[in-house]
Amino acid sequence: MEIRELNEKFAKAEATEIIEYFINKYKRDAALSSSLGAEDQVLTDMILKTNKDANIFTLDTGRLHPETYDVMDATNLKYGVKLNVFFPEVVQVEELYQIQGVNGHFESIENRKRCCNIRKIEPLKRALKPLKIWITGLRASQSVTRTDTPIVEWDENFNVIKVNPLINWSEEEVWNYIKANNVPYNKLHNQGFPSIGCAPCTRAIKDGEDVRAGRWWWENPEHKECGLHVK
Questions:
Q1: What global pTM score does this model have?
Q2: How many CB atoms lie within 10 A of CB 11?
Q3: How many CA atoms lie within 13 A of 229 on its CB side?
Q4: How far is Cα 32 from Cα 40, in angstroms, rounded to an integer?
Q5: Can you tell me the distance from the alpha carbon of 94 to that of 69, in angstroms, rounded to the nearest whole number?
Q6: Domains in the chain, please, with CATH?
Q7: Is 191 exposed, middle or buried (0-12, 13-18, 19+ CB in 10 A)?
Q8: 228: closest CA among 170, 141, 133, 162?
Q9: Active site residues
């Protein structure tokens, strides 16, 4: 079935229907890439209720918040699983440090993108290489860079079909699901962090700010992607 047909098929479908279709059809060839944020925790719950042996992975950049490791542990314990973890190549991280130091990503967009590429993009490429389906927790209202994202799309950067089951969900729907299903979540969300990435590049947001305002807050909104979801 072509991507256009899949979008027509799932235009009015529930997120659980979308999950069940791709997990049952592709099995281990489909995977959720989880940042362990609220949306990905919702999808983790849905996916593992569909298939306990489903493929879910996360990227450990080496600079995550302690609270992110806490929710990873809580998730493993609740569902009786071990999320797959991909790490950056150690030699590349060592070279990055020699080039720009420990916090050189603050100095320029180029430096920040180099850091993201080594710590996130390269491990993601390894994780996605054997897959046919990449499931994400993207929501259209998260960012100006995501407003026109469809439910199903072809990702040219990683040569994989990307599926976004929550693309039309509101933040309220995400939290209603978490509460109703007792889903583990990152406690930084309670401290004003709607979007959580690496510790140096994430801050709490102020009232009235965009939900992505706490990510790379020193950059313009149109630049606020690390490269994982760039069109």
A1: 0.89
A2: 10
A3: 26
A4: 8
A5: 23
A6: 3-187 (3.40.50.620)
A7: exposed
A8: 162
A9: 226
